UniProtKB/TrEMBL annotation:
SUPFAM superfamilies: NAD(P)-binding Rossmann-fold domains. It comes from Arthrobacter halodurans. Belongs to the short-chain dehydrogenases/reductases (SDR) family. Coiled coil: none annotated. Transmembrane segments: none annotated. This is SDR family NAD(P)-dependent oxidoreductase. The lineage of its organism: Bacteria, Bacillati, Actinomycetota, Actinomycetes, Micrococcales. PANTHER family: PKSB, RETINOL DEHYDROGENASE 10.
């Protein structure tokens, strides 16, 4: 897939941050239809208006990308299914970017049951439910299609104050990469899956979190650029930055006490969430 020109693109968590940047890339490449999902109705409408204006300027009103916005609470399975049905009335996405996510950033015992349910629903269940709503038709269409799921390096490397978030992202990672293999095994190679595992990105979602040794906070613009190229290429797994691969090797090779010392005292992984505040107003 050279670009997304003429395709239908759906981005979750599109009101701000990287979701809005992914949507901007779709407009810049001339997607025919762009669907934005987010729980923030006000922010979503502002994003839709700005993106539609950019699309109109780029190609002229007659041939511009049509930008649609649906306020959807991805933690609500019924609401998600209803939104997907509305999208499918005019055709299913060729590109699905499962970007939406939430984080609490607290010790496990400080979570409520509602915290746990919401985190697992948005980060782990929503990508599965959204993909399931569209995948059979994507397979049947027979044309190149892409599914991107934004997991996290937290799903690979344990970290204090991230237990529930890490669990949700580990689930997303395991599901997404298994789906890739299933599609390949079943011969549906026109639908390619890319799973992304980044460390902290400076979008505001992880405000207060500290960068680690050789692993500063990444800018959302850089992450989106690399993810977008990987998506078009059909790259199976993207770990960002390179130190995530190093951590994987060290964690697998070292005895656990040695790894804990290295992660805690040398790389600073285990203290990276100590100053976490998160995005103001995040649920």
């Amino acid at each position: 897939m050279a670009d997304v020109a003429g395709t239908t693109v759906l981005v979750t968590g599109a009101a701000q941050g990287m979701g809005r940047l992914y949507a901007g890339r779709a407009v810049a490449e001339g997607a025919a239809r762009l669907i934005l999902w987010d729980v923030d109705a006000v922010g979503l409408e502002a994003a839709r208006a700005a993106l539609q204006s950019a699309a109109d300027r780029r190609r002229g009103a007659a041939g511009a990308t049509v930008v649609e916005a649906q306020a959807v609470d991805l933690a609500d399975g019924a609401a998600l299914a209803a939104a997907a049905a509305r999208v499918a009335e005019r055709g299913v996405p060729d590109v699905l970017i499962n970007n939406a996510g939430i984080v609490r950033g607290a010790y496990f015992w400080e979570h409520t049951r509602a915290d746990i349910d919401a985190t697992m629903a948005v980060n782990a269940l929503a990508p599965m439910r959204t993909t399931l709503a569209f995948l059979p038709a994507m397979i049947a269409a027979g044309r190149p299609a892409r599914i991107v799921t934004i997991a996290s390096a937290a799903g690979l490397v344990s970290n204090p104050r991230m237990s529930v978030y890490a669990a949700s992202k580990a689930a997303a990672l395991g599901w997404s990469d298994s789906l890739r293999l299933e599609l390949e095994q079943a011969g549906h190679r026109h639908v390619k899956v890319t799973t992304v595992c980044p460390t902290y990105v400076s979008t505001g979602m992880f405000a207060g979190a500290r960068g680690m040794l050789m692993t500063p906070l990444m800018t959302p613009e850089h992450v989106v650029e690399v993810v977008w190229a990987s998506m078009l290429e059909g790259r199976p797994l993207l770990l960002m930055p390179w130190t995530v691969k190093l951590a994987q090797l060290a964690r697998g090779a070292l005895p656990r006490p040695a790894w804990d010392f290295l992660a805690g005292r040398v790389f600073g992984i285990y203290s990276s969430m100590g100053g976490f505040t998160g995005r103001p107003g995040a649920r």
